[in-house]
Amino acid sequence: MPDTTSSEVPDAARDGRLSYAIFQLARAHRGHAAAMLRALNLHPGQELLLMQLFDRDGRTQAELLERAGLDHSTVSKSLRRMQEAGLLTREPAPHDRRVMVVHLTDAGRALREPIADMWRTLEQISVRDLTPDQIEMFTACARTVEKSVRDHGRQASGG
User: Fold this and answer.
1) What span, in angstroms and rounded, lies between the C-alpha atoms of 54 and 109?
2) What is the Cβ-side half-sphere exposure of residue 47, based on CA atoms within 13 angstroms?
3) Could you tell me which residues are beta bridge partners of residue 100?
4) Would you give the DSSP letter of residue 105?
5) Buried b vs exposed e over 96-112: b needs ≥16 C-beta within 10 Å?
6) Which residues contact 102 (CB under 8 A, 6 or more apart)?
7) Helix, strand, coil share of the chain (percent; to 5)
8) Could you point out which of 13, 14, 47, 98 has its C-alpha 20 to 30 Å from the C-alpha of 105?
9) 68 touches 39 (CB < 8 A)
């Protein structure tokens, strides 16, 4: 597949070169991850929910929502699709019937290694031209940028 992106920054984004680079990176990375997930019969974001359940099965939908960093409608839709696919079950919590508890099925648990392999491969592809020091620096910078954006979002919303 030919590379249809350009390293040239549009004139309107010249004062936002970093933001434009982040957008291009995120789009390319997400597109590649989505293709890898399709091979596992998953949609983007579903692996994030499964990984949370791999770490601790029996989380509530609210916990998954918070921990995966996805919006409510995405989590609800993803959980419904995964339940229909036989990867998990959802049942009301004994202490509060309004709270839904999510459990992996055997089919869901069987995706642990394929998902770990997928993330490992995506990592290898992503960092193949970087040194270990560059990887550490990039990761630290990305976390700092993410925190800045999240903090600004909280301040803007009054939270």
Assistant:
1) 7
2) 22
3) 92
4) -
5) eeeebbbebeeebbebe
6) 53, 58, 59, 60, 61, 64, 79, 88, 89, 90
7) 65, 10, 25
8) 98
9) no
Give the integer Cα–Cα distance in Å for 143 and 159: 20
**Alpha-carbon torsion 57, 59, 63, 69, what sign?**
positive
Can you name the residues that pair with 92 across neighbouring β-strands? Answer: 100
Q: Is the Cβ–Cβ distance between 121 and 36 less than 8 Å?
A: yes
Amino acid, single-letter form, for residue 22: I
Which of 42, 62, 65, 19 shows the shortest CA–CA distance to 111?
42
- Compute the residue count for the chain: 159
CB count within 10 Å of CB 60 equals 15
pLDDT, mean of each 10-residue run, the chain (159 residues): 64 92 95 96 94 96 89 91 97 90 98 97 97 98 94 81
Which residue has tokens 């549009």?
10
Q: Given this model, what pLDDT does residue 20 score? A: 95
What is the pLDDT at residue 6? 58
- For 129, the 3-state DSSP assignment is coil
The conformational region for residue 119 under phi > 0 = left, psi -120 to 50 = alpha, else beta, is alpha
Contacts of 9 (CB under 8 A, 6+ apart): 17, 20, 21
